[in-house]
Amino acid sequence: MVWPMALGGAALVIAIIALTLVVSVVRRVGARDPLSVPIFWRRFLRIKPISSATADRAGKLEGRERQIIAFVANPSKSGVPEMRERAIQACSARYLPEPLWFETTIDDPGTGQAREALAQGADVVVAVGGDGTVRAVADALVDSDASMGVIPIGTGNLFARNLDMPLNDVGTQLRIILEGNTQAVDVGFMDIERAYPGHGEDGTHLFLVMAGIGFDAEMVAGTDATLKKRVGWFAYFFAAIEHLGDKRITATVAVDKGEPSTTEMRTVLMANAGRLPGGLQLIPDASITDGQLDIATLDARGGLVGWTELFGSVVAQGAGIRQRQALRAWRTSRIDHVRGVEVSVEMAQPQRVQVDGESLGRAIRLRGWVKPGALKIRVARD
């Protein structure tokens, strides 16, 4: 009996010593970097950041200790339930309250949910979904004190691309939302006037990337939803092929109340940002922080030759190569560009209109303008 008791006592002493060493090591590691310690040990040992560097890593920046995060998610997108768990874990790891969670509906794609989040005191409202969800959430946050985060899980993800957000890295996306800097960005608006009463609602529509009239909008409206789910943004190219033979539109464009100009073209674009899927820089000079819209008219003549030349021009200008003025006379395509804070467009015939990839039907007159710095966005820290 003596030896078993002696061995048991020795084992107990060794276990106590080992536990003491583990606790000591965990405390030291946790003091330097609490996020590297499992949640159980952080709670058991009550590890808290004690240095500015640790507070930085934990997201405990000045004024953010108890920030309330709200997520507005499109439940039709795959991975949303898992996203909720990741969001809860990310907030817990930074000692933040459990995030608010809202889901969009067919009747309300996100604006009402974002307003409810603000009413409940949210400091950051995160759009989880495609560009439609992002627009809807942004509509509620314009001119508010709250910041907006973006977790892009759509097809185009135009706004996220122009923010240089990582598209397939949820961990990085959450870190940007919870620890990133806040940047004020411009927001575009467009008033629509229909040609005939009852053919759609007039009104003001927000856009974060760009609004389009003509070929651009026909392509958006003609994209097959099923094909879009299967092949992603590449589905837009199939829709574009179907409209290559459409007639050119006649439109009168006036920028900043300047002299109106009437011409034939394929499409008119009002851009707050200029990057498209596939790395295409449709309007390289566009910036979401310059307080201006970039208005571009694109034209192509001569059938397939003209369209090929136009596509080549888009690719070339994205690489920093611009066509020379002297060569325009014999070209079968052209891209004209001007910058301003307000633009009006009047079409000879009703034309399709789109904002950030959402078709708005046909209109006869439009007015676009920009509101500088109207939306606060969480972006990666420098």
Descriptive tags:
Tumour Suppressor Smad4; 382 residues; ten-stranded antiparallel beta sheet; 3 domains; 34% helix; alpha+beta; four-stranded parallel beta sheet; Rossmann fold; 30% strand
Describe this structure as you would to a colleague.
It is a single chain. The protein has twelve helices and 14 strands. A hairpin with a 5-residue loop joins strand 8 (249-255) and strand 9 (261-265). The longest helix is centred in the N-terminal third of the chain and has 31 residues, at 2-32. Helices cover 34% and strands 30% of the residues. Strands 5, 6, 7, 8, 9, 10, 11, 12, 13 and 14 form a ten-stranded antiparallel beta sheet that branches. It has 382 residues and is of the alpha+beta class. It folds into three domains: 2-43, no CATH class; 52-179, Rossmann fold; 188-374, Tumour Suppressor Smad4, CATH 2.60.200.40. Helix 4 (80-93) crosses helix 8, helix 5 (111-119) crosses helix 6 and helix 9 (215-221) packs across helix 11. It is globular.
Chain-wise SSE layout:
Blueprint: H1 2-32, H2 39-45, H3 52-57, E1 69-73, H4 80-93, E2 100-103, H5 111-119, E3 124-129, H6 131-141, E4 147-152, H7 158-162, H8 170-179, E5 181-193, E6 203-207, E7 210-214, H9 215-221, H10 225-231, H11 235-242, E8 249-255, E9 261-265, E10 267-271, E11 293-300, H12 304-318, E12 333-340, E13 342-355, E14 358-379
Parallel strand pairs: 1-2, 1-3, 3-4
Antiparallel strand pairs: 5-6, 5-14, 7-10, 7-13, 8-9, 8-13, 10-11, 11-12, 13-14
Helix pairs in contact: 4-8, 5-6, 9-11
